[in-house]
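Record now logged underneath.
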Amino acid sequence: MLEPDGRVIMISGASRGIGLAVAKHLLDKGYCVSAGARNVDALREALAGAPEDRLLCRAYEAADRASHEAWLEATIARFGKLDGLINNAGTSNTFSIEAGDEEDLDALWTINIKGPLFLTRICLPYLKAAGTGRVINIASLSGKRVRNENVAYNMTKHALIAFTHNTRRIGWDHGVRATAICPSFVATDLTAGVTKVTQEDMIQPNDFAEVAALALSLPNTACMAEMIVNCRLEDTF
């Protein structure tokens, strides 16, 4: 297992939900965390009390490539290296085959696919240099099967898994390992309106954070390409 001490991890969408739970969990384990989110003030407030010497909070906007560059540059300036990237920032809507504006479709591709792709592109040289670089993409079971009409969301999560496998291919010889974590319902504010499963029966954010930490800590010889995490019984998974 890779020890957390001194390892530097960037996490997008870290001001709430899954991203916040993962950021806190990694800080507790001893990682250095570079947290990115659209609202930096909210990010700092959410992570108040964390060890200042191991935390950096910066702006990240999936559609703004300049924010990608600025965040990475600040991370390297602060910590001197990069060991892992967790592409967590994402969104959803109800765009379907039969209804929805094109702008809604474009928004999901921009945030759920283009953001992780172009952020990974600029981080990859540093991850290769680390020798044990990690890319963790927070996908979804909606990237493995389709159980609703939200076609744009389903397509982007399928694409994110394909992107993960391609990242594994190009980074493998340099020690970069990529993992797509595919959860079902996670108990966050984004699932507050879900009626299929109660929040108590959903995956809890802290438990999900432990899964992400496992993906970061596995050695080069035991990487999981996909990690499927469910809170209920499904025939396929």
Q: What stands out?
A: The first helix runs from residue 17 to 29. Strands lie at 8-12, 32-37, 55-59, 84-87, 134-138, 177-183, 226-229. DSSP finds six helices and seven strands in the chain.
